[in-house]
Amino acid sequence: MTEIVFLGFSDFHEIQVLLFVLVLAFYVMALLGNTLIIIVTVTQPILHAPMYFFLRNLSFLDIGFTSAIAPKLLVNLLSEIQTISFTGCGVQMFFFLLFGLTECCLLFVMAYDRYVAICRPLQYTLKMNQKVCTQMAAFSWTIGILVAFGQTISMFTLPYCGSNRMNHFFCDISPLLRLAITDTYRNEVSVVTVTIVFILVPFLLILLSYIFIISTVLRMPSVESQRKAFSTCSSHLIIVSVFYGTIIFTYMRPKTMYSPDGDRLLSLMYTIVTPSVNPIVYSLRNKEVRVSLRKSIGRKTFFQGQWA
C-alpha cells in the first residue's frame, strides 16, 4: 500500500465547497486566536501566573492539533480524489496523537492548578512555582510523545495489502485498523488501554477536582469571592466538557452505536471547531485576558497611528 483514499466527504460533492469554506474559517480562527493568546500571555506581565503559562501551552497544542488535520483536509476538499500517502498517514497520526494526548494531560494539570489556587491558597506559591509548572508541562509533553510514538509504530507494523479506502477524513486509529489484513485484537486492547489511562482517568480526576473546588467555593462567605472563583474556573470547565466529551464518546462508545457520519461529525468538532473556540472562551470568560487583549490591541493601534 503506497497511499490511502479517504471516503470521508467524497459522497458530498455538492457541499464540499461549503465545507472547505467552513473548515478554512475555523482553521484561520484557531491560528489567529491561539497565536494572539500566546503573544498576550508572553508580553503582558499580569499574565505571567502559572494559570496563563498552562494556557499558553494549551494554545500551542491547539495550533498543532488542528494543523495536523486541517491543511490536508482543505486540499482534499478541493480534489476529485481525496488521498494521502502511506508515509504521510503515519506522520499525520503521530502528530494527531501527540498533540491530542498531551492536551488531555495538560487539561488535568490546569485543573490541578485551579484546585490548589482555590482549595489550598496558602500553599499555592510553593506547590505551583515556576519549576513545578515547567516540570508538569514537560511531563505532559513527554507522555504525549512516548504514547504517540508507541501507538504509531504498532499501527504501521501491521500488514496492509487489501483495500486502501478509509471511511474517514484523516488517519485515525480505528479506521486504519479496519484496513489491516491480520488479527488486530492486541491493537484494539492497546487503544482501549490508552483511552482509559490517558483520557478517561484524567477526565474523572478533573471532575473530582471540580467537586472539591465547588465545595470550597460554596463555603466562601463573600458572594464576590464566589463569583471571582467561579469565573477563573468556568473557561477551563467549558473546554474540558467539549474536548473530553466528544473524544470519550468517539473512542469509548459501544460498537452498536457506531455511525460513520456521526464519527466524522464528532471528529470535526474536536479537531477543527474546538481549537478555534478555546481562545474565544478564555478571552470572553476571563477578565485579565480581556484587559490584556485590549491593551495589546490598543498599543498596536497607537504605533500604527504614529507611523501612518
Annotation keywords:
globular, 308 residues, three-stranded mixed beta sheet, 11 helices, single chain, disordered C terminus, 3 strands, mainly alpha
Give a short synopsis of this structure:
This protein is 76% helix and 3% strand. The chain is mainly α and 308 residues long.
Tell me about this structure.
- The chain is mainly α and 308 residues long.
- It is built from 11 helices and 3 strands.
- The protein has helices at 16-43, 50-67, 70-77, 86-119, 124-127, 130-155, 173-177, 185-218, 223-252, 260-285, 287-307, and strands at 3-6, 83-85, 165-166.
- It has a 3-stranded mixed β-sheet.
- Mean pLDDT is 85; it is low at 301-308.
State which percent range the strand residues make up.
Answer: under 5%
Largest sheet: 3 strands, mixed
Q: How many extended strands?
A: 3
Intertermini distance? 57 Å
Q: Describe the global form.
A: globular
The ordered H/E elements are EHHHEHHHEHHHHH
Tell me the Rg in angstroms. Answer: 21 Å
How would you state the average pLDDT, rounded? 85
| SSE class | mainly alpha
